[in-house]
Design goal:
eight-stranded mixed beta sheet; 14 strands; alpha/beta; about 475 residues; six-stranded mixed beta sheet
């Protein structure tokens, strides 16, 4: 068995592919698994992940000229799609450039993930699970038992604070970090400021603002050295960034400050037992934000973050349940009844509509793609309709309009190729319209693709009706 994987994205994306590499090795014992990626990332990380054969992307043409049993493209870079098209294999998943330069997405779950661009508000599937669901049995994902984050025996109070993120809006500012470091020190903890070369100036500013309450190591550690240092911390406080995934993978407990245009359901720390803190605002989890200041960032209070971290370091995270982290909601990473990633509320009260719609669409797409029968989305719908009757009524009025739009397109009396098709429907149904639109694109807007879309709408209507039969 020969398997070729393209993962040419950043550090965090590579680490979130480690579970897939692990499962491929278990599903296909003895398989030769080759991964095309960025040497700057896989070089120092290869010794930490499952054993695979890494190849730099500049050697991709040579690799793609060979034959494989399976090709999986996890990258959105055009050269990855081109190489995936060149590689001969009877089974492919992800974006592939086919003959004539036509781009085609292979795999139900990969197509679903593509539909989340600018449309991920109600998504409840994690990237690590989406990497695998087209090629790995759900039973194997569900049966995987991950080690719990370490609780160090010594109590020296060392806490890592990673300052950087890929975009400034995804992390706190220097003033926040400085106050947080002082509050951590006031509670007897020893904060250590971390970051890459891009955070050197930020690290110096934070150290100045906290009055020297923290050690500062920004830009001084390579990835291999950072992985070793992480093992000495009781906790890593971090925005959504690659080193967060490195910490989670290597067993360092994580408190993720999830802010800005990120969705922790997709890119939060993957292994169970880690923590995610979110601003208690209704617009959180967006793809992009034009508001200034961002409500989700303004909701974070450094003193309360320090209190939560102090409890976690002391092994008292259970005492945070139901406590008032005013303006913020605390979650712990777990697994749902199917065995895929779930954020379980610890403290706060997540918005009812956000939770209800997220659960319904998660179960609905699970049913579409064979990881749950109709009873699951039907039960989720009954709970939504009972608690949010006006939303349920609006939903019921929208489905016939969507069906009529699709029938008009199939018959040639309408045009469902325009992007306004999916965006023109209310947000509560856009998980479906966004997916249907990209499904139609992938099927060249054919009548058959349109009929399949109508079948999906019919399934949703069945799930939201009075019976699950």
């Amino acid at each position: 068995m020969r398997i070729l994987v393209f993962q040419m994205q950043r550090m965090g994306d590579l680490i979130l592919s480690f579970p897939l590499f692990l499962w491929l090795g278990r599903a296909y014992p003895g398989a030769a698994i080759r991964v095309v990626g960025e040497p700057g990332f896989f070089g120092p990380l290869s010794v930490l992940g499952p054993t695979v054969d890494y190849v730099g992307w500049d050697g991709g043409d040579r690799v793609a000229a060979q034959e494989y049993d399976m090709v999986i493209n996890l990258s959105h870079r055009p050269e990855a799609a081109e190489l995936a098209g060149k590689a001969a294999a009877p089974r492919k998943a992800g974006l592939v450039m086919e003959e004539g330069g036509v781009l085609r997405m292979h795999g139900d779950w990969q197509l679903y993930r593509a539909s989340l661009v600018r449309n991920n508000r109600h998504n409840r599937f994690h990237w690590a699970d989406l990497n695998a669901l087209d090629v790995i049995p759900l039973a194997m994902i569900a049966a995987t038992r991950w080690d719990a984050p370490r609780q160090l025996e010594r109590h020296d109070g060392r806490v890592g604070v990673f300052l950087g993120a890929s975009q400034p809006e995804k992390r706190p500012d220097a003033a926040f970090w400085g106050t947080l470091a002082r509050e951590l020190a006031r509670r007897g903890l020893k904060p250590v400021l971390l970051g890459g070369p891009a955070e050197r100036e930020l690290g110096r500013e934070v150290k100045r603002l906290c009055g020297g309450a923290a050690l500062e190591y920004c830009g001084r550690l390579g990835l291999a050295e950072l992985a070793k240092v992480l093992q000495t911390f009781h906790l890593l406080i971090t925005p959504d960034t690659g080193p967060m995934h490195l910490a989670a993978w290597t067993g360092c407990r994580v408190l993720n400050l999830s802010m800005g245009p990120v969705n922790p359901w997709e890119t939060g720390p993957y292994q169970p037992g880690h923590f995610v803190l979110r601003g208690a605002v209704s617009c959180r989890g967006c793809w992009e934000c034009s508001r200034s200041p961002m409500p989700c960032r303004a909701a974070f209070d450094p003193a309360r973050v320090a209190y939560a971290a102090w409890r976690m370091v002391r092994g008292e995270s259970q005492r945070l349940a139901g406590t008032g982290l005013s303006g913020m909601d605390l979650f712990q990473v777990g697994r749902d009844g199917r065995g895929v990633y779930r954020l379980e509320a610890v403290s706060g009260r997540p918005p009812l509509a956000e939770e209800a719609l997220g659960r319904f669409w998660s179960e609905m797409f699970g049913h579409f793609f064979g990881v749950g029968d109709m009873s699951r989305p039907h039960k989720a719908w009954e709970e939504l309709a009972r608690s949010l009757p006006r939303l349920a009524a609006a939903f019921a009025r929208t489905l016939p309009r969507l069906g009529g739009f699709l029938r008009a397109g199939i018959s040639g009396r309408g045009d469902f190729s325009d992007e306004s098709f999916w965006a023109g429907f209310p947000p509560f149904v856009r998980p479906l319209t966004g997916y249907l639109h990209i499904f139609l694109q992938n099927g060249d807007f054919s009548r058959q693709a349109g009929r399949t879309c109508l079948e999906r709408v019919s399934q949703v209507a069945q799930a939201t009706s009075g019976t699950s039969d």
